[in-house]
Amino acid sequence: MVAIEAATTVPVNKPGSKPLTRQQVWAGLIQKCLTPQKFVSVMSDCKVSSQTATEIIRTVTFREGMGPPMSPPDVEERVVLAPGVKADFYQVKSGSFISNIISTGPGGPDDLYLTFTFSFVHPGIEDPNSEEVHEKQKGYSIQGIKTVAHTIEVIREMVESGKI
User: What are the distances in angstroms from CA 11 to CA 38, 39, 48, 98, 108?
Assistant: First the structure.
């Protein structure tokens, strides 16, 4: 069994765009926790069973063939929140997890970055140095960049429409 790791970072406030604040990005990440299907195309549904200021328990439904390796379409997740900074998504049965992290660059409070880290457990893979692992890691990195950029787009749309 191998865990395949990847991480991608995208600037939140690109030149020419109206800057989003950390509070707006955080509010968007909370929306992503509650309604991930608006942000992540491979998810089709989410049912939240409990929510506090620092934890969300939810069951997400993945589109057919799009979920975690060797998992059913419905996956229970425990989301641990560090308010204003990060959300860690733990897939209870598989051991896979994802983190969404808001960070600030050297340019000050508007110099925000959004990073997603991925650790996907692959029970059918034994060799961590195999070509299969490297190809999957490359794919996760490419998909990660798209997912982070899309998340920022959705948050920006929610802010512009007054939903955040």
Answer: 20, 17, 29, 19, 13
